[in-house]
Amino acid sequence: MSLAHTQPDAVGQRLRWAREQAGLSQGQVARMLDLHRPTISQIESGQRTIRPDEVNRLAEIYGVKEAWIIKGDSVTDEALDPRVELAARHLSRLRSEDLDTILQLIKVLRSRPEDAR
User: Fold this and answer.
1) Tens digits of per-residue pLDDT, 41-67?
2) For residues 63-86, b (16+ Cβ closer than 10 Å) or e, as one string?
């Protein structure tokens, strides 16, 4: 996947959002990647271009697609569940603070043990 034409600041913003949604600190991510915490900060602020191997690993850690990290693409190879599309339409109409509440709820639901689902 070519990173030559990406905007580091946009990539960094997506990575920061994904890290926060995963409930991880920059320090935790740095340890997972065997990097220093300031390196994660530089990537998220667009001061450092991310390497392809780092994109791959971060996609795994955050549970997102590499294409989304690089280009913001939301299209996936799998057919999207129509319920997800419906939910996205409804979520797009929420006030910012209500959307933040929903995102917190999703984070709680994702953190439950598998046998509790």
Assistant:
1) 999 999 999 999 999 999 999 989 898
2) ebeebbbbbeeeeeeeeeeeeeee
